[in-house]
Amino acid sequence: MKYYSKDWYHKMQVYGFLLSFPETKVEWDKSIKRFKANGSDYIQSRKEELEIIKKDLLKFLPESLHSYINDGTLISMFPSEKLRKMINRWKDEYIKNMEDLDKEYLINYNSSKDLLPLNIVKLNEISLHDSNVKSFEKPTKETFVINLDCEGGFNDFSEITLTFNGVKEISMPENIKGGFWLYDEVYPSNPGFEFHVLFDIPFIEFKIVAEDIVVEGKNI
Questions:
Q1: By CB neighbour count within 10 A (0-12 exposed, 13-18 middle, 19+ buried), where does 58 fall?
Q2: Read out DSSP for 148-177?
Q3: A Pfam family for this UniProt protein (predicted)?
Q4: Residue 60: which H helix or E strand, with range?
Q5: Within 13 Å and on the Cβ side, how many CA atoms surround 215?
Q6: Quick one: CATH architecture of 116-219?
Q7: Other CB atoms closer than 10 Å to residue 182's CB: what's the count?
Q8: Dist. CA 205–CA 199, nearest whole Å
Q9: By three-state DSSP, how is residue 198 classified?
Q10: How far apart are CA 69 and CA 73, in angstroms?
């Protein structure tokens, strides 16, 4: 994927992790007390969260923050003014970069939309985020079908079936059955379109090149 790739998604998780930083010492102390009242250790919980995402923190955050990551002080104590400034600076840069990326993709999409089949343009108007792949099949050499459960998704359908016709290429590193639809991109191809999807569980980038698509939805 050119825009909403695995790295893009991992970086977004780093941003989400940093958003959970308490803004004030009062908030920090309240969190510790709340966890303690429930028989848990707030700082230990944060340390465990850091270990899960540590690889991405080291990859995407500047070296000036690496010592805080490696010794655990990034989250084991209320952040100093210096640390909070560094974190806020990175978050501000992240937001700007993501806004620029979204604008760039939208500009490119709008400039090439007239070259896309009408059905893929219509599909692009439906959010498939968090839809779950119930099944997929390849009934013919040039046909590929994906059945989606949209109950937990962000659209007004309970199910959607995507039938890709005139398939020229499919890249599917792992079985996508059971996977959750995260984000997608589409580009013109001659003829047809090139469609990319970032799935979770398994965490893969899926690609299909086809001439057209049929979208069938069952309303909630």
A1: middle
A2: EE-TTSSSSEEEEEEEEES--EEE-SS--T
A3: DUF4085
A4: helix 42-60
A5: 14
A6: Sandwich (2.60)
A7: 19
A8: 6
A9: strand
A10: 7
pLDDT of residue 174: 94
Domain residue ranges in the chain = 6-111, 116-219
pLDDT for position 4 = 97
pLDDT at 176: 96
Dihedral sign from CA coordinates of 63, 101, 99, 119: negative
Residue 11's closest CA among 81, 93, 85? 93
Within 8 A by CB and 6+ apart from 146, the residues are: 133, 135, 136, 161, 162, 164, 176
Phi and psi, residue 44, nearest 5°: -65, -40
pLDDT of residue 220: 56
Length of the chain counted residue by residue: 220
Residue segments in the chain with a per-residue pLDDT below the cut of 70? 220
